[in-house]
Amino acid sequence: MIKILDLIREAVEENKPKLYHLSKGGAKTLILLPGSGKDGGQGSSDFTTLKNNLGKEFSIYTANFPNALDVRAYAKQIANEINSNKSIGSFNIGGFSIGGGIAWHLAKELEALGVKKFNRKLFFIDSGIADSSDKFIEGMLSGNPSRYAIAQPLSVFKKNRLGTNLSDNEEREIKKFYNKNEVEAFKKSNEGNYLAYEGSAYPPSTNNIESESKTKNLKDPWIIEDKYENNLAIFKVRYSVKPEEIIGKSFLKGDKLDHELFAKKDSEMKKGLGREPLQPGEKKLGALSGVKTIYLIAGNGPQGAKDKNQTIAGAKAEAQKATTADGAIIKVIDGVTHGGVDGITKSPKLAAAISKYY
């Protein structure tokens, strides 16, 4: 009896509408699929700032999805929902991060249904479609190098330990280093105004750090660390979205493990994310037929500005396999990152580009 009820609940959940409005009334309709995090994809989280930046000219639909997802079945359900929803007029689609790959599958399903109100433009927001799910994961891991160390003012460090939300400017004060030379250069430029907890030394209690600062007559010194907290209670507050498997590990090892665990718990759970065949005898999914692709790419990676020429060349090569349409539009948006306080979806430059190329 319990199993039957569970099946009924699953069926009801499966048939619930996936799309919901972020904004209404605009003459231009855009359907956007989010990236994925600890709790799956959350459209309102990724696109609320973008919705505000786009303004009244746009009506924005988005959706949520769980970490474990049959991508192609999900795309088919949304395509059917769009096709049957008479309140959705002409529209374009797009996706951020992993949502871009899902949006490509959505375009594939819209083509299969012959949805005429689809204006045949696909916005890849710092995203794309991989040849296979394995290739997507490989790219994700290679694009997120492990940090060597971080530094932040004591005032920001204290807020982090308390789990207090930081302002955008406070977030920007957290420095990330990817090798020892970067750390040593930072120490030299801030000589006499930092406390370093490296190697086997973990940061002590906040009270002890404040006492040491007073003893050394330091005002809001930089706190330099090269590892995750080893106190479970502090770790859970400070790194609430991180897995406990990385407690006490160096950033070099912990970041790598964190990314690998996310891939296993999320990316690997997205069945059919790439263009790979799913059954023996099937062929790799072919290119979209005449759908215009617009690649809007974050100009900065974790370690600073990307090589623009290399970035554009990579997008061009992918576009040739993603669609039969010629002349993909590729724009690198300077000064923004994939996520975080300066994330691409928060940038007015992204909204301007979408408005231009819609």
In words, what does this structure look like?
- The protein is of the alpha/beta class and 358 residues long.
- The protein is 41% helix and 20% strand.
- It is built from 13 helices and 16 strands.
- The protein has helices at 2-15, 43-54, 71-84, 98-113, 133-142, 154-162, 168-172, 180-189, 206-215, 232-238, 251-265, 308-322, 348-357; strands at residues 19-23, 28-33, 41-42, 58-65, 69-70, 91-96, 118-125, 149-153, 175-177, 194-197, 222-225, 270-271, 292-298, 300-301, 304-305, 329-333.
- Strands 1, 2, 3, 4, 6, 7, 13 and 16 form an eight-stranded mixed β-sheet that branches. It has a four-stranded mixed β-sheet with strand order 9-8-11-10.
- Helix 3 packs across helix 4.
